[in-house]
Amino acid sequence: MPLLIEVDKKCCEVFPIIVPDSLLKTVNFFLFKRENSLSLIDAGWNNEDCWKALNLALRNNGFSLTDLTEIILTHHHIDHIGLVNRIVSQHPIPVYTSPLSIPRLKRDKDFLEMRIEFYQKLYQEMGCGETAKERIAYLKKAAFDNKGNTLQADIRSITSKSLFNLDIVEIAGHAPDQLAFWNQRESWLFAGDLLLEHISSNALVEPDEFGKRLPTLSQHIKSLQKCMELDVSLVYPGHGNLIKNPNDLIKKRLERTEAKCQRLIKLIKSGITTASDIAVTWYKNIYYEQFGLVMSEIIGHLDYLEMQGKIEKQLINGVWQFKVVS
Fold this sequence. Notes:
Layout: E1 3-4, E2 13-21, E3 25-34, E4 37-41, H1 48-60, E5 70-72, H2 78-81, H3 84-90, E6 95-97, H4 102-105, H5 109-125, H6 129-145, E7 155-157, E8 162-163, E9 166-170, E10 179-183, E11 188-190, H7 216-230, E12 234-236, E13 243-244, H8 247-269, H9 275-283, H10 286-289, H11 291-307, E14 311-316, E15 319-324
Parallel strand pairs: 4-5, 5-6, 6-7, 11-12
Antiparallel strand pairs: 1-2, 2-3, 3-4, 8-9, 9-10, 10-11, 12-13, 14-15
């Protein structure tokens, strides 16, 4: 059964919908009630567990689906947008999201093709060989198979600094389009996958709209630092437990990032000089089982170290070789 938690009533109310999930621990999305509106922040998976949890949360708190006034998305990942089409097919309401989400949510053909070309070149230059070919074949198949996930909704870009009593905070890193929604009066932050209590959030390697690689780990670090500066009392995350007074956890995540960087430097000094060899040495079989996540982790840290001037790279026979700057 889904777990429902009610936060004390103040100037507004939040009704978290927390659905157990075998892969992600939980999938969380939220009803945010103000005087004359009821927003749904994120929309879980497109499955019966999340659908039942949404309707139970509405019913238990005196609402129905038709009381929803809008859907607000933290980012475009499938576990955050799953119920959107089902909701708007029964109750047409606008969906608000970052402008960067739109080509992803609309599954723009040119954008998806550019993205596949980006990964093909990236993995080749990182020395990933046959494993990369398998990943690219998967991405090409997914681009076709997932056409049905295109959002059939009135999608509106969030371009202002506030929306529905929430300040907009750009928190790129985990996803380039990720936004947080900050209720300053109550010190609440709806933070998507920026900060999770039970696991470090992965800064997923992504291209920008022009096909250039984004510095995702650097973005993620800056986003965590933004969260610290807000002095948040309660984070509503996309997965896991709600996080009270998150600054200690943020410090822990930042320290862990620095520790990983030091381990990478040691591996490079030992003579392991390509991203793929570093990934295999570090993660072993997990490299093959979770290739995309592992390579995001390694490439993100290598980019971060290069930006700090601690390592440099040279393209040799089409593959980047890294070395520590002495």
